[in-house]
Inverse folding.
């Protein structure tokens, strides 16, 4: 190659402050997660007309597979946005000013859920819960008593603390008793743990593409029940991009109101095919086994999970920093020396923990590589002395 071109390229890279190349790493974050080659390759399909027959076929295929993943007969919509857009869509389409929404707050994402309720004029009734635990059905029933609650909104898997609220079924019954909508943020768990949406009476369930579904980031999935549609029609939200009435109107002709991220739709379709091939039950068991192996290893190292034993998540393994060692030191060594990428703490928990995403394609191989990288990094940092 002409030397001047090489020099220009190097100069450009220097100015950009990046090598502009990305090594393949083992991404053990609580999202995004590793994406199988099959799913990556699906994105190379040709672009099609999003108002043409091929898209309608894709729309049907995705809907069928999403119903399986959500275990629902309801419609499930694919939104071109990250998970936050899905939660905003739910909240902005059901709330009128002053509506009361019960929301347990036990971490960063449930805090954000509460903020969204406030943003759209709702009146959140916060149930403060220790970070590391989840609200019990009794706490929720007590808080709902005598209140005219429009909805109960729960984060199923609090990604910031590694807590799974394994009481969704019971909360669903409380929502039903109060004729309240039941909204569940399942962004970091759908496809990785039990979540029978219809059986548990969930009216609106939100998931993200980049977590347990092992798809790239960029899509939010949202299921809507008949009860939720009644409320949405009464509310007539002013939401524009995330307007569910408009989305429903286009759904009738198997289209979306605005241009969908076609390549991500291809990816999701393939990722959901893989989920169907494996079967939900097997997939959930795989997540459970991998999580158990992580917790066993962490304890063997003398480290402590952040969440209380009762609420330990099978998709996010949150671990307290060992005394005298920072998560940054551990994370940097794991990334630089072993090519394994894990996350730190969020919000008020920043600098106190590291978090490992055990999601999507996770198998014993990824667990072993991560545990080995963790062990070596701790050793190098003098932890085992
Ligand atoms: C439980 C939960 N809710 C909401 C979000 C926000 O999703 P996104 O970052 O895709 O907007 C996340 C992201 O990690 C999450 O884990």
């Amino acid at each position: 190659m002409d030397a001047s071109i090489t020099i220009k390229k190097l100069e450009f890279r220097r100015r950009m402050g990046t090598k502009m190349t990305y090594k393949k790493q083992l991404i053990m974050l609580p999202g995004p997660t590793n994406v199988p080659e099959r799913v990556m390759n699906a994105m190379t399909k040709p672009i099609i007309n999003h108002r043409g027959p091929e898209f309608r076929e894709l729309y049907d295929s995705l809907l069928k597979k999403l119903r399986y993943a959500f275990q629902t007969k309801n419609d499930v919509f694919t939104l071109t946005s990250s998970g936050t857009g899905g939660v905003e869509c739910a909240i902005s389409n059901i709330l009128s000013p002053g509506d009361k929404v019960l929301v347990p707050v036990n971490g960063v994402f449930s805090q954000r859920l509460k903020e969204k309720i406030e943003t759209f004029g709702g009146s959140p009734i916060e149930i403060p819960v220790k970070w590391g635990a989840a609200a019990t059905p009794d706490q929720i029933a007590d808080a709902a008593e005598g209140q005219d609650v429009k909805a109960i909104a729960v984060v199923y898997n609090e990604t910031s603390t590694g807590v799974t609220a394994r009481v969704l079924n019971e909360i669903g019954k409380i929502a039903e008793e109060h004729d309240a909508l039941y909204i569940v943020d399942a962004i970091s768990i759908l496809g990785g743990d039990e979540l029978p949406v219809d059986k548990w009476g969930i009216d609106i369930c939100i998931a993200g593409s980049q977590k347990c579904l092992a798809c790239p980031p960029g899509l939010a999935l949202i299921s809507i029940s008949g009860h939720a549609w009644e409320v949405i029609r009464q509310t007539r939200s002013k939401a524009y991009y995330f307007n569910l009435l408009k989305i429903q109107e286009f759904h009738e002709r198997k289209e979306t109101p605005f241009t969908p991220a076609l390549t991500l739709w291809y990816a999701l379709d393939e990722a959901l095919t893989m989920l169907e091939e494996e079967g939900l039950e097997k997939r959930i068991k795989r997540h459970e086994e991998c999580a158990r192996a992580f917790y066993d290893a962490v304890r063997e190292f003398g480290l402590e999970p952040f969440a209380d034993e009762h609420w330990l998540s099978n998709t996010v393994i949150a671990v307290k920093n060992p005394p005298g060692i920072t998560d940054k030191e551990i994370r940097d060594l794991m990334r630089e020396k072993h090519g394994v990428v894990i996350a730190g703490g969020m919000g008020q928990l920043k600098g106190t923990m590291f978090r490992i995403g055990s999601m999507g394609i996770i198998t014993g191989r990824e667990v072993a590589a991560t545990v080995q990288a963790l062990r070596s990094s701790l050793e190098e940092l003098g932890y085992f002395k």
